Amino acid sequence: MGIVIVEICDGSLITSINVEEILENEYPEVAVIQNDCLSFCGMCARRPYAIVNGKRIFAKTVEECMDHIREKIESDWQLTTNENG
């Protein structure tokens, strides 16, 4: 099983919760990295988002965004497991 990287812009609305603590407790193989800027100017002020293994994940609410992030993490793990299985 590989590692999953979740990148968070410190200006993103998703930082209203502790994404790092939540995801790293739920998924030990996940690394959450908070950056000053992820170069998606303006998106961070409009809606919560993160980048999971290079793919931009966003939603209207923080809760919905977290659900999409979890789905992407589990999908990526399933792909890795099937490839190595």
From TrEMBL:
Database matches in Pfam families: DUF1450
Full protein name: DUF1450 domain-containing protein
Organism for this UniProt entry: Peribacillus cavernae
